[in-house]
Amino acid sequence: MPIPKTRWDIFCTVVDNYGDIGVTWRLARQLIAEHGLAVRLWVDDLRAFERICPEIDIHLAQQSQQGVEVRHWPSDWPQTEAADVVIAAFACQLPSAYMDAMAERQQPPLWMNLDYLSAEDWVTGCHGLPSVKYKSVQKFFFFPGFQPGTGGLLRENGLLERRRRFQQDAAAQRQFLHGLGVDRAADAQLISLFAYENAGLASWLDALAADSTPTHLLVPEGRILGDVARWLGVDALAVGDLDVRQALTVQVLPFVRQDQYDQLLWCCDFNAVRGEDSFVRAQWAGRPMLWHIYQQDEDIHLDKLDAFLALYTKGLSPAAAEAMSGLWRAWSAGKPIGEHWLQVRKHWPELQENAEQWCLEQGLQADLATALVQFYLNWI
Question: Signal peptide location in the record (predicted)?
Fold first, then answer.
């Protein structure tokens, strides 16, 4: 059944620096490029948006970027006609005037709460269920996820094939890294590090520096830079800085746009990522990874971490699963991970194979944008 020409509104309040806007920006572009929809993306923080899309003019209330109508979400809400489909990303609260506009439509819109990504068992039972109702407008839960019965993950058409070709093209990788000022250290494993502040970092850097295998650590601008600087014994780090300590080369990269970040992940042998957007993109890289989950009150984030680990390590031997789980749990608790890293290295070929297999298995499911469109088609 073809989808009729419809207007979709996506609302995003920036809470976690770049994860919220990263997800909604990818989604908006994909809905336009692959499904031919008209999409408005309402964002309350254009400065955060500018970091991942430098073309954004932070002073404009309305602009067009890559086919997406980008609107600044002001505190003084303008009179606006509600769209056919309304997505409140990550449970953000819509403006009351906009909710009234939804209720005033002759045909109420489909209103969905696009929730946070989780591998917890209860997600499949709640996905697609009705939520609250505002006057005549019913809201529905929509959960991204890793298992059938969820909304899947953001994945553009042809992404895995582009990744495969890039990872098989050594010249393309060298050219990309050269554009970032990276001359890969001889025989070094390449690791990317994008994380929140973490007290456990120093022990990992100690292990990498003392290792017999050289490591070239690429650190994009971000919150972890302060911890890296302290380990190096310097006051601060800036883009372009490069420091060598025994077997470890540390290099600071600029904050790159989304497509470049994908290629960075594809180049690396191991990726440390954070939040939600980079977490999903690291899975599509098909390489071993480490996730710094966003911390929540009462440590409920650890339940999400364990739920994902149970799925991600299911195909590993008990020893490899234990090593990977120990590394992830220690990292998200801010504990030393040097010894955990040494255990992980003992199972490297198995972990590489598992990462690729996990990627391919997830690629068999419907992607998030397609699942949203199908939900709309079923609704109408």
Answer: none
Range 7-153+365-379 classified under CATH 2.60.40: no
pTM of structure:
0.95
Which listed residue (20, 115, 227, 262) is catalytic? 20
Q: What residue segments make up the domains of the chain, in order of their start?
A: 7-153+365-379, 159-363
Taken as a whole, the chain contains a residue count of 380
Tens of pLDDT, residue by residue over 115-132, are: 989 999 999 999 999 999
Q: What is d(CA 8, CA 69) in angstroms, rounded to the nearest whole number?
A: 10
CA distance 79 to 24: 23
Active site residue 262: no
What separation in angstroms does the CA of 267 have from each of 27, 220, 287?
24, 14, 9
Catalytic residue among 9, 227, 276, 367: 276
Fold match between domain 7-153+365-379 and domain 159-363: yes
Q: Confirm whether 20 is a catalytic residue.
A: yes
Question: In this structure, is the dihedral angle defined by the CA atoms of residues 233, 239, 240 and 246, taken in order, positive or negative?
Answer: positive
CA distance 214 to 337: 18
